[in-house]
């Protein structure tokens, strides 16, 4: 929209303020002149001769509705495209996070054959990246605060490029491990810096949406990785080199883009680079007056210094200052519960869930994993749409409630599959004449839970026939050590199937329903909100450190859950594992209900006060907390107290 048109909207807002009785500061003759500037052809709203807003929101009659409509129009009109460019280039970091964590599963299928990798090496190549991400996210706080957001994003893209080259050119498994660690270091830095950078550049009415776009890019990267995995899995040799190498393209793009993109204005103000900060603010705010925003940031930095004192390491200052302590607890808690709800296990396990439901073709299972990743991606898009409508609190609570129920459905699918588990109908003799433990199982369920055994069977209509429990090939879990399930050719000839970690039953589709429900609920809220909320809840002085800690917690729990899943399933059975995640999710629900205030539409500088007023009860040790909770109960409104209400409490 042209400058003239946005001036009109601004004028409309001013007129509305007058209409609503706000103090009029302009001279009486100014209004008449400005009124004639209104150009209804360009502006959706206009003031008629009685000073009433027309055409702003069909059907809205009250001044409140009119004001909201005009404000919305104003915000839309004055958001320059540059802020979107900045966000998209930063979110390439999210894309690389998703791509590099996702691509490894397909690459591993090929690598373990070509490089003859043991189970330990496979595990190392997957977890080393996540482990390195945890370390670099935790240490990224120092870099972020000291060097600035922009150098950190440039560093992350360089690490992504270097990692891609090393991986694509690797001749041995040790080099592969090195490459995966380098990529992990990049992921960790990007995961904590990008949301902060976007949040600091975005105008408050768009902040949630733009930061959530970063998670959309993460899930987009995971989906793209699944497609690339599918496409290159047909190559007889070296397919994995292309899978790994391709990630250099977005990384180079991001590096080049960030050579021209600016530093975060808030970081610049904090470091006293005021002229530069003003320049950047004007650049990203287009034709808006930046004075108010600039002064707001500057004042809050000055106040923060007074309030928190300047001494000691930032993490220590965060812990002794109640508002930041509560924010940190909330931020880390959100990230912990995101991972404890089992997203990465569910995604990783999706191929098996499809197999359970009757998909017995390996290639098809790879493509169906891409469908899972696409579902995650498309429902994250729903989150991008909802975050500024519902707000962070409702979206997260709704999402986690649905996720908990979906986990229960998923678990029930496994319960049913275990209860009607097919029997073992014959025990072939072991050609190696070594006594295997697999002979002791008379049902599929016991056999499938033993990591050394798998179930080899045929289907007759919907019935399982000619089934046996046989030792698994120690090099891969995809086939048995001997017998008709020991390779694809034999299986095809015989018409038999190999089930390593599931049992074929007619109820298995329940797990598939659980999987789809899970992604539908998780992706719009619990996927993106922990990142979005963390980018906005800390005051500037604590933002890098707060995000470093919470991202570190995310990666640590990511490693923990993925590494323990198979053992958990072994001890608790598969349904036990999913019931456990449902239990974690339910505890998370209580935590979030008690701790997450609504941050939608607030300026970053205003958010700290949500934690000052003890709206978040977590971590509060003050004795009058009960008095405050009672106050809220009597007021009957949870998190929507006006400033006046909140100050009443003190
Ligand atoms: O927000 C993201 C997203 O939900 C991804 O799908 C998941 O793999 C990540 O662990 C998570 O942090």
Task: Tell me what the structure shows.
- It catalyses: myo-inositol(out) + H(+)(out) = myo-inositol(in) + H(+)(in).
- Keywords: Cell membrane, Glycoprotein, Membrane, Phosphoprotein, Transmembrane, Transmembrane helix, Transport.
- This is Proton myo-inositol cotransporter.
- One of its GO terms (cellular component) is apical plasma membrane.
- With about 650 residues, the protein is mainly alpha-helical.
- The protein contains 26 helices and five strands.
- Strand 3 and strand 4 form a beta hairpin.
- The chain starts with a helix and ends with a helix.
- About 50% of the residues are buried.
- The N terminus and C terminus are likely disordered.
What features would you highlight for this structure?
two-stranded antiparallel ribbon; disordered C terminus; 650 residues; 3-stranded antiparallel β-sheet; elongated; mainly alpha
Largest sheet properties: 3 strands, antiparallel
Principal-axes geometry comes out as elongated
- Main-sheet strand order equals 4-3-5
Helix and strand content put the structural class at mainly alpha
**Small molecules (ligands, ions, cofactors) in the structure:** 1,2,3,4,5,6-hexahydroxy-cyclohexane
Number of strands: 5
Average pLDDT rating = 81
Number of helices: 26
Instruction: Kindly estimate the percentage of residues that lie in beta strands according to DSSP.
Output: under 5%
- Cα end-to-end separation: 45 Å
Helix fraction bin: 55-70%
Low-confidence stretches: 1-60, 617-650
Taking all Cα atoms into account, the compactness measure Rg is 28 Å
Oligomerization status of the protein chains? single chain
Keywords: Cell membrane, Glycoprotein, Membrane, Phosphoprotein, Transmembrane, Transmembrane helix, Transport
Organism: Pelobates cultripes
Function: H(+)-myo-inositol cotransporter. Can also transport related stereoisomers.
Family: Belongs to the major facilitator superfamily. Sugar transporter (TC 2.A.1.1) family.
């Amino acid at each position: 929209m042209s400058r003239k048109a946005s001036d009109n909207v601004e004028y409309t807002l001013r007129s509305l303020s007058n209409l609503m009785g706000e103090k009029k500061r302009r001279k009486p003759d100014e209004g008449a002149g400005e009124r004639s500037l209104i150009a209804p052809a360009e502006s959706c709203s206009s003031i008629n001769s009685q000073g009433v807003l027309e055409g702003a929101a069909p059907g809205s009659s009250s001044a409140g509705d009119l004001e909201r409509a005009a404000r919305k129009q104003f915000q839309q009109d004055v958001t320059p495209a540059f802020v979107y460019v900045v966000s998209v280039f930063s979110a390439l970091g999210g894309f690389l996070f998703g791509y590099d964590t996702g691509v490894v599963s397909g690459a591993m299928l090929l690598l373990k054959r070509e490089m003859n990798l043991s189970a330990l090496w496979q595990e190392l190549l997957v977890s080393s990246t996540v482990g390195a991400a945890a370390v670099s996210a935790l240490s990224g706080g120092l870099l972020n605060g000291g060097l600035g957001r922009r150098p950190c994003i440039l560093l992350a893209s360089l690490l992504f490029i270097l990692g891609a080259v090393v991986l694509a050119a690797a001749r041995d498994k040790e080099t592969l491990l090195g490459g995966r660690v380098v990529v992990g270091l990049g992921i960790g830095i990007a995961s904590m810096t990008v949301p902060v950078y976007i949040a600091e550049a975005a105008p408050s009415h768009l902040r949630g949406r733009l930061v959530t776009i970063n998670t959309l890019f993460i899930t987009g990267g995971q989906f793209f990785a699944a497609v690339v995995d599918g496409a290159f899995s047909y190559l007889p040799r070296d397919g994995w080199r292309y899978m790994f190498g391709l990630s250099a393209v977005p990384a180079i793009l991001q590096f080049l883009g960030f050579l021209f993109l600016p530093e975060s204005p808030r970081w610049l103000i904090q470091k006293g680079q005021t002229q530069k900060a003003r320049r950047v603010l004007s650049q990203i705010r287009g034709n808006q007056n930046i004075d108010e925003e600039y002064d707001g940031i500057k004042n809050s930095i000055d106040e923060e210094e007074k309030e928190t004192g300047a001494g000691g390491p930032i993490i220590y200052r965060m812990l002794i200052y109640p508002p930041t302590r509560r924010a940190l607890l909330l931020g880390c808690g959100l990230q912990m519960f995101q991972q404890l709800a089992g997203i990465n296990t569910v995604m990783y396990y999706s191929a098996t869930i499809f197999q359970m439901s009757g998909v017995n073709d390996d290639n098809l299972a790879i493509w169906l994993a891409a469908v899972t990743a696409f579902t995650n991606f498309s429902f994250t898009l729903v989150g991008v749409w909802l975050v500024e409508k519902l707000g962070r609190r409702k979206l997260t609570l709704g999402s986690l409630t649905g996720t908990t129920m979906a986990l229960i459905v998923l678990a029930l699918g496994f319960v049913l599959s275990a209860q009607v588990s097919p029997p073992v109908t014959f025990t072939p003799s072991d050609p190696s004449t070594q006594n295997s433990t697999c002979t002791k199982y008379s049902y599929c369920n016991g056999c499938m839970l033993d990591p050394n055994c798998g179930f080899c069977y045929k289907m007759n209509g919907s019935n399982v026939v000619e089934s046996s429990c046989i030792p698994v090939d120690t090099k891969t879990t995809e086939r048995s050590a001997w017998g008709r399930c020991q390779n694809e050719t034999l299986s095809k000839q015989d018409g038999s199937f190999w089930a390593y970690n599931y049992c074929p039953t007619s109820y298995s589709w329940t797990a598939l329903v659980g999987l789809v429900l899970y992604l539908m609920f998780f992706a719009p809220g619990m996927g993106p909100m922990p990142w979005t909320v963390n980018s906005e809840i800390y005051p500037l002085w604590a933002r890098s450190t707060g995000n470093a800690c919470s991202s570190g917690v995310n990666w640590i729990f990511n490693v923990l859950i993925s590494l323990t899943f198979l053992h958990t399933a072994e001890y608790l059975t598969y349904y036990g594992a999913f019931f456990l995640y449902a239990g974690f999710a339910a505890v998370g629900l209580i935590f979030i209900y008690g701790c997450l205030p609504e941050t939608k539409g607030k300026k970053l500088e205003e958010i700290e006060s949500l934690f000052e007023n003890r709206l978040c009860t977590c971590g509060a040790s003050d004795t009058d907390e009960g008095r405050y909770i009672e106050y809220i109960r009597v007021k009957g409104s949870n998190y929507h107290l006006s400033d006046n209400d909140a100050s009443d409490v003190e």
